[in-house]
Each structure stands twice: as structure tokens, then as C-alpha cells.
Specification:
It is built from 15 helices and 14 strands. It is α+β, with helices and mostly antiparallel strands and 439 residues long. The chain folds into two domains: 3-44 and 305-435, no CATH class; 55-290, no CATH class. Strands 1, 3, 4, 5, 6, 7, 8, 9, 10, 11, 13 and 14 form a twelve-stranded mixed sheet that branches. A two-stranded antiparallel ribbon has the order 2-12. A hairpin with a 2-residue loop joins strand 4 (105-107) and strand 5. Helix 2 runs antiparallel to helix 10 (292-335) and helix 10 packs antiparallel against helix 12 (350-390). The longest helix has 44 residues, at 292-335.
Length: 439
């Protein structure tokens, strides 16, 4: 009888404890892999979403809040500001472009982002990668004076890839937006329908969930509500909008100039003029100025301790699985003392008995680790989908081969360490005492 057949029969003879032990190791390995993969994938996704802007200007309460709201659609910004802020900023010699945006509505839970015509030409959600289209075309930029409704071109919609998939809308479909964010019982703007004219290619950022509309359209929609509430008869149009009705919630800003040496060395493109522009804007107490990259770093520093805690918990679970292996094998060796004694009588050396026990422990660890990797692949996908649907953050988790190999080796090493005591007891089995008749 070979060593492999001996180990196989030993494990199959107590199949319940074997499966339980393997599952315990698998859960620990899967938990560790999912935590590690989601942590890095989440950071990559957050870093991609801010795109090629350098600064975000808003009236939000804090820089971190403004980034979470304006870039990752956490919730609608609570404060607005006039569009003249963006116009004045665009004239600043230190600014390459300043793109006004407005939030505050949704369609079936997908947030709307009202943008200017230049948005899709200048802003890139992933630096160096312009927007792509999988269907339709970008909204028209010029009005048709001969049309029955010269403002109709303002009510054209571009859908992010996830928004198109989640709503099931296609080119030519019509929709009406709802005031407020997902989950709020907001007013439905059913008197101003929009038409889908294009569907954007996936960017793997939070912008994939956005429903892009024009600033003029959202101003008209909300001005109609304000005027109706005030009892005014005049319907708003692009031509008669008042300055007080042209509000925005944020400005995407890119500084002018060549990339600085420090920025290039770090893989960024921050120009040398950026610190001067940042300091200049911060002198206005009514504005909140945020550097998205810095705020993302701040966010990860805040959650870093919690992240390490979760990884620590996973490590404790992995160690506890090793303890389980030790207890299971210890109990098995007690029950198999007579079998071990017979092996010794048949010529098996103490070293062979010891190696059989150690190999059995290693098999348990390896089987559990391999099952854990399979569970991690499934679990990471489920977790990413849950984050996408609940938070709106598009994450592509990758199970790194380095982590996988490290955890496979770690699980086997822990299993072998746990098998030392049972193997030592098998090594020191009293042959004569174990072969003595039981009664």
C-alpha cells in the first residue's frame, strides 16, 4: 500500500471532519483574498474617476464631501452657486478650462449630471482616454432656429454604460427625471421629457452610472417649478433664463501650464502653476477647493485602520483554521494508534509515520486553500456588484497571483505547523501497548 493510498483512506474514513476542516481553511483564505483584492481595486477605481481635472470647486461643506458628491455621486450637493463663478474662473490666466456641472436629480436611481457642451470634449474620466460611444452620437451643440421647439436640442441625454444597462433605455427612448437622489420621494419633472441620443462606452468609473443632461435643460426644468410656485405665467426658455436661475453645484478645473517635474515623477500631470491657483482660490471663503487625488488619499488614510482590522480578522480566522486542523488530526491519531502500530510492525519507520501525518496535514491545508481561491473569485465578483449597485462605485477586482501563491504557501505552512504535534504523537506511538488486546 502506497503512502498516497494510506492518506486517501485516512481522509475519506472521516469525511465529515475532513470536509469541515477544508471548508474552514477555504473560508479564511477566501476572506483574506477578497479583502486584499477589493482594497486595491477600490483605490484604483477611485483614482480613475477624478480624471484629468486638477481641482474641484464647489460650495460644499468640506473638500472630501465635495469630491464624494461631484465625482462619485455619493449624494446631491447641499449648496449651489451661480454659473458666473465658472465663467470668471475660466477667464483666470492660470486656468486651462473650468467646466460647470450641476447635480440634484436622478432617473430610476441613476444620478444625473448636468454639463456644458464642452464637457465631453475636454474632460476625460480616465486621463489620456477620451470618451467613447457605443451607440448614437453626442448631443447637438447648436440650436435649429427653424425647429418648432428651438430648445429641443437641450433635452438630449447621454447615458453612461451602467445607466444604459440598468435602465434598459436605447437610442430614441424618452425619459423624465426626478428631483433628488435615489431613494428620495422627489418631484417628477414629467412636463419636460428628455430623449436619449447616445450611449457612452464603459470607463470603469462612477461616471458609468450617470445620466448626462445639459445645464440649460436642467435650468429650464427647475426654473419652471420655481416660476410656477411663485405664480408666474412666463414659461422659461434658454433665451429668458435669469441669472438667479442659472445655478451649478461644482466646477471641474484644469490648471494651465506644463507638467511639473514632481508631477511627472509621480506619474501625474500637475503643472507648476497648480499650487498658486489652489492658494488663490482658497482665499475666497465662500468656495471649497479640493484636489481629488489628495482627498482620495485622505479617504484611504481614514479607512486604513479599519482596513487593517479586517485583514487582521481574516488572519485570525486563518490561524483558527490551523488550530482546527491540529485538533482534528490529534483526535484522528488517538483513534488510529492501533493502525499506526500495525504499520510499524509491517516495517514502516518512525520517520515514515511522521511524514504521513505531516503530509495529511499539508493536504488538508492545500485543499482548503485551493477551494478558498475559487470562493474568492466568486466572492469578489459578488462584492463588486454589491458595491456598484449600492454605492455606485465601479470596481474590477483582480485576484493577484502573488497574493494567491503567498496564501497557498501560507495555508500549507500553517497546516504543517498544526500537524507537528499530532505527527510527533504518531512518531512516538507505543507499538506494544497499542497492539495489546482491548479487552
Amino acid at each position: 500500500m502506497t503512502d498516497a493510498s494510506i492518506i486517501r483512506r485516512s481522509l475519506s474514513s472521516r469525511w465529515f471532519s475532513t470536509l469541515s476542516t477544508v471548508l474552514t481553511v477555504a473560508v479564511a483564505v477566501a476572506l483574506m483574498l477578497v479583502l486584499l483584492s477589493m482594497r486595491d481595486a477600490g483605490r484604483r477605481s477611485l483614482e480613475r474617476g477624478s480624471g484629468n481635472m486638477h481641482l474641484l470647486v464647489s460650495a460644499d461643506s468640506s473638500p472630501l464631501t465635495s469630491v464624494l458628491n461631484a465625482v462619485f455621486y455619493a449624494r446631491s450637493p447641499a449648496r449651489a452657486m451661480p454659473v458666473t463663478r465658472a465663467e470668471a474662473l475660466a477667464d483666470n490666466p492660470l486656468v486651462q478650462w473650468a467646466l460647470p456641472v450641476q447635480q440634484g436629480d436622478n432617473y430610476k436611481g441613476f444620478p444625473t449630471l448636468a454639463v456644458s457642451p464642452e464637457f465631453f470634449r475636454l474632460f476625460q474620466p480616465v486621463p489620456g482616454e477620451p470618451w467613447g460611444i457605443v451607440g448614437g452620437s453626442f448631443p447637438s451643440l447648436q440650436a435649429d432656429p427653424s425647429a418648432d421647439d428651438p430648445d429641443a436640442h437641450h433635452f438630449e441625454v447621454m447615458l453612461g454604460a451602467e445607466a444604459a444597462r440598468g435602465t434598459g433605455l436605447g437610442i430614441g427612448d424618452r425619459l423624465v427625471i426626478t428631483h433628488g437622489t435615489a431613494g428620495e420621494a422627489g418631484h417628477v419633472h414629467d412636463d419636460h421629457p428628455f430623449t436619449v441620443v447616445g450611449i457612452l462606452a464603459p470607463t470603469q468609473t462612477a461616471h458609468d452610472r450617470a445620466v448626462f443632461i445639459s445645464l440649460t435643460a436642467t435650468w429650464i426644468v427647475h426654473a419652471a417649478d420655481f416660476r410656477a410656485a411663485a405664480g408666474e405665467k412666463e414659461s422659461p426658455t434658454a433665451a429668458n433664463l435669469r441669472a438667479s436661475e442659472k445655478l451649478i453645484t461644482g466646477i471641474y478645473v484644469r490648471a494651465r501650464g506644463r507638467p511639473s517635474a514632481a508631477g511627472a515623477g509621480e506619474g501625474g500631470d500637475a503643472p507648476a502653476s497648480l499650487p498658486q491657483l489652489f492658494a488663490e482660490l482658497r482665499r475666497d471663503p465662500t468656495l471649497t477647493v479640493a484636489s481629488p487625488s489628495q482627498q482620495i488619499g485622505t479617504l484611504f488614510r481614514i479607512v486604513g485602520n479599519i482596513d487593517r482590522l479586517f485583514v487582521g480578522v481574516a488572519a485570525v480566522v486563518l490561524v483558527s483554521s490551523a488550530v482546527t486542523i491540529m485538533l482534528v488530526m490529534h483526535a484522528a491519531m488517538e483513534l488510529r494508534r492501533r493502525q499506526i502500530a500495525i504499520l510499524r510492525v509491517l516495517g514502516a519507520s518512525k520517520g515514515r509515520v511522521f511524514s504521513l501525518a505531516m503530509t495529511e496535514a499539508a493536504v488538508l491545508g492545500l485543499a482548503g486553500a485551493m477551494l478558498g481561491v475559487a470562493l474568492a473569485v466568486i466572492g469578489a465578483r459578488i462584492t463588486a456588484e454589491a458595491v456598484r449597485s449600492r454605492v455606485g462605485l465601479v470596481i474590477e477586482p483582480n485576484i493577484e497571483p502573488v497574493w494567491t501563491l503567498a496564501l497557498l504557501a501560507g495555508a500549507v505552512a500553517l497546516a504543517c505547523l498544526a500537524g507537528l504535534i499530532p505527527a510527533w504523537r504518531a512518531y512516538r506511538t507505543d507499538v506494544l501497548g497499542s497492539l495489546r488486546p482491548l479487552a
